[in-house]
């Protein structure tokens, strides 16, 4: 476990790593614990008199054009965004690690086949790949969105892991383990995987930022989280119409995206430097 | 004497990139008896490490062992094994100590886990029992304070200790043959002596056969019962150690001795062997040592077989044919 904890500890010691972690924690605390204390994010208490109110004590982030509380929608939308990001990244990291390990260790035809598949997938921009699938269906449930984002995010990771395995495969401890009669599964999971956790950790932290942006983008295009459920991207989409009269309706979800992605990337950068001292 | 290993006409080939295959190991034949130490001596690139990897079928693709080769472990035909049966040989029948103790241990696993890996791969024992056995192995290879070393990571150990751990790992599944590939190259001389001491003790206490692979004739002298000298993918001379040292018969072996400084006896100029080992992609025709041999004559354009000199002593040289 030291392979995982040590880079995190070292990242924590850098100013940007610490700032990123603290901001992410703050965001997580807010989105997890605040919704029960806030107004119902779906309720439209007063569509005529209460619409597009400027920030006040009652509505710290103001209300949108349907009189819904923006703070409450940012918080609940953040739950969805963060959950989608974490689960999708977990999925793509797992897939990427598996494909990379198998391709790198087996080599030969298996490697060639898997890597050509990855090449083909990488040739198509991820957003278009997602748009293609999403545009074909009417309403996409959240779990399917998570699956799709996860399933289109592992290509780069598998490349990184494979490259790492190609290097590790030549290490004598891998050969020593084979000489002891260890099975392939054992070599992969006991010897190769732990030594690739560093790069995987970097890919994961940087991936979280990417996926939040991607989900926001899809929701902004109307293909992600479906209204009336709040999501950061969807809120910006709705706020477009009142951008001049009620800028807060789009400003706050926008700020939430920027802050979250920025902190995730700060942590990712710090972890990368901690994993690879040469890059520092 | 029980014969534990018979290698016959072992050839290992690799593709050369233009469709042909070259043979870094080309027709190696030797046997190993229980309780015996045999040394395989040769320069870098002569094929000795590949020979040892071939014993466990660990030749990395696209390399392969040629079909007319034969490796027999007691009654088992190693070249006929696949999958599980092959894994049961690895570590259990033949244990292997690798060259570099710095890179042969996984940096992220505790020492105890790495020894336990070999035990649990071959015996159905609990984790606790494996740990108990690992502890005994560390004691056996002479690691002080073995209890606390079990939980150490490799980077916390010195080079000599790591090499001892490597030996413990190789012994984990109680193999009948121990292959030690340059077990002491990365170590300083005193530690080197200790490690060889450990190997020797284990050989006699466990009745193992040891195949000691080295480029250092000094290591061979006191340790090995027999020596096989390799050159350009072949064994060029094979003899009981004392005989080889007293009467080296192949010009290459003679050259090796002439290029090693001696402490006793009158000072003399060292004579290096001219030239260098040819690359495995282009073994010379005829006798492979011919281009560098000071005694080469007409007949050397034909490839010599291993010719007997005295019982147990053979050399791959036409000079061995005629009485000297």
Topology diagram in text:
The complex is a heterodimer of chains A (280) and B (324).
Chain A: H1 2-12, H2 15-33, H3 70-106, H4 108-123, H5 126-136, H6 142-151, H7 155-169, H8 172-179, H9 184-220, H10 232-239, H11 248-275
Helix pairs in contact in A: 1-11, 2-3, 2-11, 3-4, 3-6, 3-7, 3-9, 3-11, 4-7, 7-9, 8-9, 9-10, 9-11, 10-11
Chain B: E1 3-15, E2 21-33, E3 37-41, H1 48-55, E4 64-65, E5 70-73, E6 76-77, H2 83-89, E7 94-97, H3 111-122, H4 127-140, H5 146-149, H6 159-171, E8 177-181, H7 189-206, E9 209-214, H8 217-223, E10 226-231, E11 234-240, H9 241-246, H10 251-258, E12 307-310, E13 313-315
Parallel strand pairs in B: 3-9, 3-10, 7-8, 8-9
Antiparallel strand pairs in B: 1-2, 1-4, 1-5, 5-6, 10-11, 11-13, 12-13
**SSE run of chain A:** HHHHHHHHHHH
Dominant shape of chain A: elongated
Mean pLDDT of chain B: 87
CATH superfamily of chain A: MetI-like
CATH level-3 fold name of chain A: MetI-like fold
Number of strands of chain A: 0
Amount of helix of chain B: 25-40%
The stretches of 5 or more residues of chain B where confidence is low (pLDDT under 50) are none
Specify the biggest β-sheet of chain A: none
Number of helical segments with 4 or more residues of chain B: 10
What is the 3D form of chain B?
Answer: globular
Number of structurally distinct domains of chain A? 1
Order of helices and strands of chain B: EEEHEEEHEHHHHEHEHEEHHEE
Look at the structure and give the CATH class of chain A.
Answer: Mainly Alpha
Structural class of chain A: mainly alpha
Helix/sheet category of chain B: alpha/beta
Total helical segments of chain A: 11
Secondary structure: number of strands of chain B = 13
Most extensive interface: pair and counts? A-B, 21 and 33 residues
Walk me through what this model shows.
The complex is a heterodimer of chains A (280) and B (324). Chain A has 280 residues and is mainly alpha-helical. Chain A has one domain: MetI-like fold (Orthogonal Bundle), CATH 1.10.3720.10. Helix content of chain A is 71%, strand content 0%. Chain A has helices spanning 2-12, 15-33, 70-106, 108-123, 126-136, 142-151, 155-169, 172-179, 184-220, 232-239, 248-275. The longest helix of chain A has 37 residues, at 70-106. The radius of gyration of chain A is 22 Å and the shape is elongated. Chain B is built from ten helices and 13 strands. Chain B has helices at residues 48-55, 83-89, 111-122, 127-140, 146-149, 159-171, 189-206, 217-223, 241-246, 251-258, and strands spanning 3-15, 21-33, 37-41, 64-65, 70-73, 76-77, 94-97, 177-181, 209-214, 226-231, 234-240, 307-310, 313-315. Chain B has an eight-stranded mixed β-sheet, with helices on both faces. In chain B, strands 1, 2, 4, 5 and 6 form a five-stranded antiparallel β-sheet that branches. The mean pLDDT of chain B is 87. Chain A binds chain B through residues 2-3, 107-108, 171-173, 175-183, 186, 190-191, 194-195, and chain B through 53, 56, 58, 61, 87-92, 95-96, 98-100, 103-109, 114, 117-118, 121-122, 153, 166, 169-170, 172-173.
